[in-house]
Amino acid sequence: MTISKITPILMVEEVEPCIQFWVERLGFDKTTEVPDGDKIGFAILQKGGLELMYQSYASMEKDLHGKDIAQQTRRGPTCLYVEVENLDQIIVATQGAPVVVPVRDTFYGAKEIGVKDPAGHIMVFAQFGAAA
User: Fold this and answer.
1) What is the per-residue DSSP string for 40-80?
2) Domain segments of the chain: what residues?
3) 49 in the Ramachandran plot: left (φ > 0), alpha (ψ -120 to 50) or beta?
4) For 77-132, which CATH class?
5) Of all helices (H) and strands (E), which one includes residue 115?
6) Per-residue pLDDT tens for 37-62?
Protein backbone atom coordinates (compact mmCIF):
# COMPACT_ATOMS: atom_id res chain seq x y z
CA MET A 1 0.00 0.00 0.00
CA THR A 2 1.28 3.44 -0.92
CA ILE A 3 -0.02 6.64 0.61
CA SER A 4 1.11 9.55 -1.51
CA LYS A 5 -0.15 12.54 0.46
CA ILE A 6 -1.96 13.60 3.61
CA THR A 7 -3.46 17.08 3.82
CA PRO A 8 -5.10 18.43 6.98
CA ILE A 9 -8.54 20.02 6.72
CA LEU A 10 -9.03 22.44 9.58
CA MET A 11 -12.63 23.15 10.54
CA VAL A 12 -13.43 26.77 11.37
CA GLU A 13 -16.30 29.19 11.88
CA GLU A 14 -14.88 31.52 9.19
CA VAL A 15 -12.38 30.63 6.47
CA GLU A 16 -11.46 34.16 5.41
CA PRO A 17 -9.29 35.18 8.41
CA CYS A 18 -7.33 31.93 8.12
CA ILE A 19 -6.61 32.53 4.44
CA GLN A 20 -5.34 35.99 5.31
CA PHE A 21 -3.09 34.57 8.06
CA TRP A 22 -1.34 32.04 5.78
CA VAL A 23 -1.22 34.19 2.63
CA GLU A 24 -0.21 37.55 4.09
CA ARG A 25 2.04 36.34 6.91
CA LEU A 26 3.55 33.10 5.62
CA GLY A 27 3.55 33.49 1.84
CA PHE A 28 1.10 30.74 0.91
CA ASP A 29 -1.10 30.98 -2.18
CA LYS A 30 -4.85 30.40 -2.14
CA THR A 31 -5.25 27.92 -4.99
CA THR A 32 -8.87 26.94 -4.50
CA GLU A 33 -11.87 28.76 -3.09
CA VAL A 34 -15.39 27.37 -2.83
CA PRO A 35 -18.07 29.94 -2.03
CA ASP A 36 -20.84 29.26 0.46
CA GLY A 37 -23.35 32.06 0.03
CA ASP A 38 -21.56 35.35 0.66
CA LYS A 39 -18.71 33.62 2.51
CA ILE A 40 -15.96 31.19 1.61
CA GLY A 41 -16.92 27.65 2.58
CA PHE A 42 -13.67 25.92 1.68
CA ALA A 43 -10.17 26.91 0.62
CA ILE A 44 -6.90 25.23 -0.30
CA LEU A 45 -3.64 26.99 0.52
CA GLN A 46 -0.32 25.92 -0.98
CA LYS A 47 3.34 26.79 -0.78
CA GLY A 48 5.83 24.63 -2.62
CA GLY A 49 4.85 21.03 -1.92
CA LEU A 50 2.85 21.95 1.18
CA GLU A 51 -0.92 22.06 1.27
CA LEU A 52 -3.45 23.05 3.92
CA MET A 53 -7.23 23.16 3.70
CA TYR A 54 -9.82 25.09 5.70
CA GLN A 55 -13.55 24.39 5.68
CA SER A 56 -16.31 26.16 7.57
CA TYR A 57 -18.55 24.18 9.90
CA ALA A 58 -21.56 25.38 7.88
CA SER A 59 -20.04 24.08 4.64
CA MET A 60 -19.15 20.75 6.23
CA GLU A 61 -22.72 20.34 7.51
CA LYS A 62 -23.92 20.77 3.91
CA ASP A 63 -21.40 18.15 2.79
CA LEU A 64 -22.86 15.83 5.44
CA HIS A 65 -26.37 16.43 4.05
CA GLY A 66 -27.63 18.47 6.98
CA LYS A 67 -26.22 16.30 9.77
CA ASP A 68 -25.01 18.33 12.72
CA ILE A 69 -21.23 18.59 12.46
CA ALA A 70 -21.01 18.40 16.26
CA GLN A 71 -22.33 14.83 16.01
CA GLN A 72 -19.63 13.95 13.47
CA THR A 73 -16.62 15.63 15.04
CA ARG A 74 -15.74 17.50 18.19
CA ARG A 75 -15.29 21.21 17.63
CA GLY A 76 -12.02 22.43 18.93
CA PRO A 77 -8.54 23.41 17.96
CA THR A 78 -6.16 21.22 16.04
CA CYS A 79 -2.41 21.37 16.53
CA LEU A 80 -0.04 21.30 13.56
CA TYR A 81 3.70 20.78 13.94
CA VAL A 82 5.44 22.70 11.15
CA GLU A 83 9.16 22.31 10.46
CA VAL A 84 10.80 25.45 9.05
CA GLU A 85 14.27 26.47 7.89
CA ASN A 86 14.36 29.81 9.72
CA LEU A 87 12.37 30.28 12.92
CA ASP A 88 13.33 33.95 13.20
CA GLN A 89 11.47 34.66 9.96
CA ILE A 90 8.40 32.86 11.32
CA ILE A 91 8.55 34.86 14.56
CA VAL A 92 8.52 38.11 12.57
CA ALA A 93 5.77 36.89 10.22
CA THR A 94 3.47 35.78 13.06
CA GLN A 95 4.04 38.83 15.27
CA GLY A 96 0.74 39.83 16.85
CA ALA A 97 -0.74 36.33 16.66
CA PRO A 98 -1.52 34.86 20.09
CA VAL A 99 1.55 32.98 21.40
CA VAL A 100 0.69 29.75 23.21
CA VAL A 101 4.22 28.30 23.36
CA PRO A 102 6.89 30.98 23.88
CA VAL A 103 10.15 30.50 21.99
CA ARG A 104 11.95 27.54 23.52
CA ASP A 105 14.78 25.11 22.92
CA THR A 106 13.74 21.47 23.17
CA PHE A 107 15.62 18.41 24.36
CA TYR A 108 15.20 16.92 20.86
CA GLY A 109 17.18 19.72 19.20
CA ALA A 110 14.50 22.08 17.95
CA LYS A 111 13.87 25.74 18.61
CA GLU A 112 10.09 26.28 18.60
CA ILE A 113 7.29 28.78 18.93
CA GLY A 114 3.57 28.02 19.08
CA VAL A 115 0.95 30.51 17.86
CA LYS A 116 -2.78 30.41 17.22
CA ASP A 117 -4.29 31.05 13.81
CA PRO A 118 -7.42 33.25 13.66
CA ALA A 119 -9.64 30.18 14.26
CA GLY A 120 -7.74 29.12 17.38
CA HIS A 121 -5.81 26.23 15.84
CA ILE A 122 -2.30 25.91 17.27
CA MET A 123 0.68 26.01 14.92
CA VAL A 124 3.97 24.93 16.48
CA PHE A 125 6.80 26.07 14.20
CA ALA A 126 10.13 24.31 14.71
CA GLN A 127 13.64 24.79 13.39
CA PHE A 128 15.90 21.82 13.98
CA GLY A 129 19.55 22.46 14.70
CA ALA A 130 18.86 25.97 15.99
CA ALA A 131 18.53 25.12 19.68
CA ALA A 132 21.16 26.75 21.93
Assistant:
1) EEEEEEEETTEEEEEEEHHHHHHHTTT--HHHHS--S--EE
2) 1-74, 77-132
3) alpha
4) alpha beta
5) strand 110-116
6) 999 999 999 999 999 999 998 888 88
Amino acid letter for position 10: L
0.70 exceeded by pTM? yes
CATH of 1-74, one of 3.50.50.60, 3.40.190.10, 3.30.470.20, 3.10.180.10: 3.10.180.10
Beta-carbon contacts of residue 40 (< 8 Å; ≥ 6 apart): 15, 16, 19, 33, 34, 56
Judged by DSSP in three states, 105 sits in: strand
